[in-house]
Amino acid sequence: MSKSGSPLRIVVIGGVAAGMSAASKARRLRPDIEIFVFERSGHVSYSSCGIPYFVSDIVKSPENLVAYDAKFFKEKRNINVFLYHEVISLHPEKQSILVRDLKTGLENEYRYDKLVIATGARANIPQIKGIELKGIFTIRILQDGIKTKDFIRENSPGRALIVGAGYIGMEMAETLVKLGLDVTMAARGPDILGTMEKEIDEIVEDELGRNGITLLKFTQVREFTGENGYVRKAIFNNGRSVDIDMVIVATGVRPNSGIAKEAGIEIGYKDAIRVNQRMETSIPGIYSAGDCAETYHQILERSVYLPLGTTANKQGRVAGENMAGGHALFRGVVGTSTFKVFDLEVARTGLSSREAKIEGFDYISNVIEQYSRANYYPGGSKIRVKLIAEKNTGRVLGAEMAGRDGVPKRIDVIATAITAKMTAKDIGDLDLTYSPPFAPVWDPVLTAANDLKKRITIKEEHPNL
Amino acid sequence: MSKSGSPLRIVVIGGVAAGMSAASKARRLRPDIEIFVFERSGHVSYSSCGIPYFVSDIVKSPENLVAYDAKFFKEKRNINVFLYHEVISLHPEKQSILVRDLKTGLENEYRYDKLVIATGARANIPQIKGIELKGIFTIRILQDGIKTKDFIRENSPGRALIVGAGYIGMEMAETLVKLGLDVTMAARGPDILGTMEKEIDEIVEDELGRNGITLLKFTQVREFTGENGYVRKAIFNNGRSVDIDMVIVATGVRPNSGIAKEAGIEIGYKDAIRVNQRMETSIPGIYSAGDCAETYHQILERSVYLPLGTTANKQGRVAGENMAGGHALFRGVVGTSTFKVFDLEVARTGLSSREAKIEGFDYISNVIEQYSRANYYPGGSKIRVKLIAEKNTGRVLGAEMAGRDGVPKRIDVIATAITAKMTAKDIGDLDLTYSPPFAPVWDPVLTAANDLKKRITIKEEHPNL
């Protein structure tokens, strides 16, 4: 029971990955408490990462992306979900929040005993003249996907511009090409994919080119112009332009930390809500999890901002467990992520060489290519691996891979090894699966590690030679 | 230089995986020494594991299974390969071996400074009446594959019996069904796949049934009978029989350790040559590697007999490095292996529950099923995972998986975690790749570990509840 005599009440702000994970975990541990979830949109517990596949029509209905709906949460888990309810302010001194019902406009105050802020992130929308024209979309919440798909269905656009060359940009490029559009992609600088390695970037660039996508580098949009309110042209900073019928703006996200900040909660790295590994904010009893919050990074041993769906789920569970009286710790990420673009699988874990340099590591790296299967077994293809290790210890700091067969789960092996602070030699000695349909006798992971190992320890290992 | 004044000479007995790995590694480290390889058959450096795929004609020619031929080794690596040369005795007191040229019958003595025995293993052939009939094959060396394929081509057999239900039996079952044969498989006991888990066995049994294979359990062959010297019938211990045109005997292997034993070299577990982690036998200067030798097991912290191609390659490199004056250690296996049967991928690592019990571990286990991809993304299917952990510490001891998408590389994640002595909780917290085409937000590995974790630590973690 809470101080007020009524049952302990947990309030969750935001009903997507982190929020519903927190609510569900708290419920499993405490059947007796009240749990309220306030969600601004009309959907809870959906897969944001599935939105490109909904737009491409691989996923037919938005409901297919919803793991469980509000009714399920009420009936099966006794969790009260308030859809179209926006939390407009927090009042830690009163342990209450002010909530607006977006359908009626009415505002109501709700008390809480424990609160978790899981407001997610919003698309970063650049200040560009004409950005308000019709046909310009971001891909962030489910409603964005629905609007984009409806627009394509109703307007049959022929040409699209994707602003940004990150993961969402790549997935949407594939989606739009498969829907028959002519796609141009504009990257701000010399690189695509943020801090990823150039040896991996170039494979992705080839794949874009092979699929008919025009990639423009050093290119920012100066202005969008339109006809009848619909976007028709993007004019770039270099004076060139491209005729278009629609635009996807995929230039990253920023945390929805505004209400937390206004309530005096400490804000951390890149405007994300500062949290410890218990997912507690600076105010006792208030937690935060998911894309609005910081993430602990195991290699850097400090918090960073790395919003990803799987992290949101893990953090949500930790917050839920702690709100329910438990003692869970979020162990942190090592920087693992992956995406698919056409037939190419790309994945990374740990630090890129650029990040290792920025963080002051003395590192070495290598690049190898090795088949995904025995070279005589059909269906295999070469995987390129870049591996990065600390020079003086051999500890592996990061890896990136690109290929057409079995890439992400191989990155998972290295992510596991990085978590265990393994060296290149440790990885080269791993007892991994071998069978002709699945791997060559020296898996790409082993080959990369053994090659890198030679550059680190050859002198040490052969004192007699 | 050796004691005799001539260059240091390394002699390798057996030119397949371990032997050629040893020779190549020694050469990379020591350009100055002599390296002689004696191989009884006509092929070196081929993939034994590829033989079923050569019989099935996925691989057209035996040459496709050969990584490098004798000519390559001579010309590119200055390694002298003697084909059709059988080593018939070792003379450690003289540092020499006696070798018979199988083409001429002539015998010759060769001195060595360092010797590695990489004689491999031979198929275990049960003492069955009629076993010498034509149409009965083992699948071990490349010549076995060639004979089997030739027989099928020349005789168009309609019905086959596979004796044994292990990995090779499974791969050959798929091969023969794909070649149009009617296949019966006879397993000696109640289980297939040796010590694997019954929850995995049953999925494999379903797959065999779905592909028209008749699986007979508790079935041993008492006698083969024939016509004109060709096998025509197998009569079982229970009195039943089956009409057949060919037989694959796949009842395991035993180490070729005879010449080592005769030379006074210590023999270890299951008749394998006893070696330490430097791959040294009991006689100084004599090494052994591959399927004839013991294997160090990291969980059991002792040697076992677990002949596998990837281990043979690793052990060979270690032996080669040490013969060349280096100080390499074979780190050992954790019990990882995998096979494909039809569309099913099966893999394991660590100890099975039966092995854990035999070894005296107090363990718990669980079985979960989880999709290989986001459930809304096409091409995924359920993976069954059985996970085994030490009860009082949570340390993961083993895992087995079966499914149709992404199994072996997921076992590799657990193999890596076992090597690092991770607990179920450690694995559940891993930062693994997530993207709808590759994994659900909670990968089967994470789901299995988190489920098992609950059974271990729930009381400890919630002292307040």
From TrEMBL, chains A, B:
- Alphabetical list of InterPro entries matching this protein: FAD-bd_OxRdtase, FAD/NAD-bd_sf, FAD/NAD-binding_dom, FAD/NAD-linked_Rdtase_dimer_sf, Pyr_nucl-diS_OxRdtase_dimer
**Keyword DNA damage annotated:** no
SUPFAM superfamilies (UniProt xref): FAD/NAD(P)-binding domain, FAD/NAD-linked reductases, dimerisation (C-terminal) domain
The UniProt entry, under Gene3D superfamilies, shows: FAD/NAD(P)-binding domain
> What GO terms are given for molecular function?
oxidoreductase activity
As for family, the record states: Belongs to the class-III pyridine nucleotide-disulfide oxidoreductase family.
The entry's protein name is NAD(FAD)-dependent dehydrogenase
Originating organism? Candidatus Methanoperedens nitratireducens
